[in-house]
Amino acid sequence: MSVLHRAWAIVWKDLLIEARTKQSFNAMVFFAALVLFIFSFALGPDTELLQEVAGGLLWVGIAFTGLLSLSRTYQNEETSGGLEGLRAYPGDSRAIYLGKLLGNIVLLLLVEAVLIPAAGILFQANLWPHALGLAAVSILGTIGFSLVGTFYSALTVNLRAREVMLPLLLFPALVPVLLGAVNATTLILEGDLMGEAVVWLRVLGAFDIIFFVICIWIFPIALEE
Amino acid sequence: MGVKSSIEKVLGILALGTMLIGSYVGLAVVPADAAQGNVQRLMYVHVPAAWLAFLAFFVVFVMSVLYLIQRDDRWDRVAASSAEIGVVFTVLTLLLGMMWGKPTWGVYWTWDPRLTTTAILLAIYVGYGALRSFAEDGEKRARWSAIVGVIGFANVPIVYMSVTWWRTLHQPPSSPRSVDPDILWTLMLNLAAFTLVYLYLMVRRIRFAKLEGELEKRMAYNA
Amino acid sequence: MCLVGPNGAGKTTLLKLVATLLRPSGGDAHVMGHSLLNDPDEIRKRTGLLTVRGFLYDDLSAAENLHFTMRMAGLKPRREVIARVLERIGLAEVADNRMRTFSTGMRKRLALGQLLVRPIEIALMDEPYSGLDSQGMRLVDEVVADFKAAGTTVLLASHQDGEAVREAEKTGILRRGHLEILPESEPLSRHLSVGGPAGAPEVD
After folding, report:
1. Which residues of chain A are at the B interface, by a Cβ-Cβ cutoff of 8 Å?
2. What residues of B are in contact with residue A206 (Cβ under 8 Å)?
């Protein structure tokens, strides 16, 4: 169980630092708001149109914002000696993946907690009746995004042109997550008369499980020096 | 060396031969499609190209797994070669798809599940290639690209399913159905031809990769 | 044992190899009977590494950094242990200040403290004197002496002179990847035996 303990130590450390500096959180919220605003301007004041595409826009915002935070996942470590320091500690290196993963998920969910209501306001969509469904999509989608994102950012951390490689590798891998999240969100916001959203939630869930297993299994190989 | 280069030559001749025959049959012998006309003949290149793009990627996957288990450079070379050749076939598939689409349905691009998955496949391949070009150390390059190869491929079926679902919710999928035996065996013929071309290119590319690898090692020693 | 050598000789690389942060590209070595290639985790459990830059988080306090180190080493962090170590390294008064406010010397001391909060059998020190004033250097010497008294092996790389360097039981000169141990047969070799092509560690 020491893997969980050490993972928890990393989560604690990262969230503590984040709570103190608010570097990432502020940047992410600001950036996400910017994205939402620009989309609103681009699509014009026609609220019906905005409501139709709200699901998609929301997840575009979340995806780019998430990307921003991923680049910083290991950057934090950079100023303090890099991933190297973490690797020098004994124990299964999967604790590092788990710790970083949980930190990313929590951070992204916190940003979404601000972002989704903001989107509701901007796009004049009443979100409360759908709160449960939206929460489900949000959680499953964020987990999927963070699973692959945390993994690939560890892989690319020592690579040249890291800022290009991360999105390049990430986005093809995230297609199922994005499709699932966008479609589920859109359906939920429309009232989902035929219960189709559940299908997408299942896709997200399956993706999450499959990639959790794969990523956590392969992580030590990715981390090898 | 002697045996290898003669295998290459035989393979090359076979590939060229079947390609010529297949193209001839596809263009001249088989009757054109009643509805779509001659454009439909593109199917004889488009479908085999797509098939091979996926086959090449499957090879990348298998080789990547083998590499991660055994850490033998040979598997890495085969994987990298297959990826390169796969990119060519993927681009070909997409271009042919567009060429077919415009006259037939009036658009260059449809969000057809197979086409979409192929486009994403291309993105994965390109990522794989970019990763390799940015990784300087041979061992890391092999290891990281193997990981990407495995994850990328594991994702393809999920992507395909997701896109199919997405499409069926909006529009029924459009797929050319060919039951006519003439069409079928022409397709098979061209498929065989393309496969031979793939094998020929692979054999040559792997040999080249081996030379590249040796050059790298020698340069590392002298550095 | 002390490692000396010009810049670029590979001292840091060697230390990192022993700390299992780097994998040997050829050959293998055994540390305390455990193989670098097959058993790195056993080595990590017993090894502490002091690097030039240290491995510390700016936005945590000194105490919190040590707390984190203990957690990651699999120990239950106890306040008395942390307090005691902070006292030892002279940072007790600034224990709760963020590391961001620390000077280079203070950081170095804290990094040293990281070695002290966990039980280790081998201490690897890369340029321990760098950034320290004379008081700090004395602290390093004291810590090394304590280690030796406790039976902990110390592998120290330095191109600065200091008491610990002079008092080293064994000195090795590392030049462009080749290690030459100055003649002196001492039981320290019990703890660190190296095997690879040509009998010298293969430094990547």
Report:
1. 148, 151, 155, 159-161, 164-165, 168-169, 171-173, 175-176, 179-180, 183, 196, 199-200, 203, 206-207, 210-211, 214-215, 218, 221-222, 224
2. 158
**Residues spanned by the domain of A100:** 2-223
CA dihedral over B131, B136, B138, B144, signed as positive or negative? negative
As a whole-number percent, the residues of chain A with pLDDT over 90 amount to 38
Nearest to A160 among B124, B134, B161 (CB): B134
Query: What are the tokens at A69?
Result: 């935070």
By CA distance, what is C115's nearest residue in A? Answer: A89
Pick left, alpha or beta for residue C153 (phi over 0 → left; psi -120 to 50 → alpha; otherwise beta).
beta
Q: Cβ A13–C57 below 8 Å, yes or no? A: yes
Average model confidence (pLDDT) across chain A: 87
Nearest to B169 among A196, A214, A221 (CB): A196
Say if the Cβ atoms of A221 and B134 lie within 8 Å: no
Domain boundaries, chain C: 2-199
Q: Which whole number is the average pLDDT over C183-199?
A: 37
Distances from the Cα of A23 to the Cα of A26, A75, B139, B177, C197, angstroms: 6, 12, 36, 56, 49
ipTM exceeds 0.90 = no
CATH architecture of C2-199: 3-Layer(aba) Sandwich (3.40)
Q: What are A51-77's pLDDT values in tens digits? A: 888 888 899 999 999 998 887 776 667
The one-character DSSP state at C87 is H
CA distance A150 to A158: 14
Instruction: Say how many domains are in chain A.
Output: 1
Give B121-151 pLDDT, tens digit per residue.
Answer: 999 999 999 999 988 778 889 999 999 999 9
Each residue's pLDDT tens digit, C3-59 = 877 777 778 888 888 888 877 777 777 777 787 777 888 888 888 888 887 788 888
Token pair, residue B126, equals 């390109």
pTM: 0.85
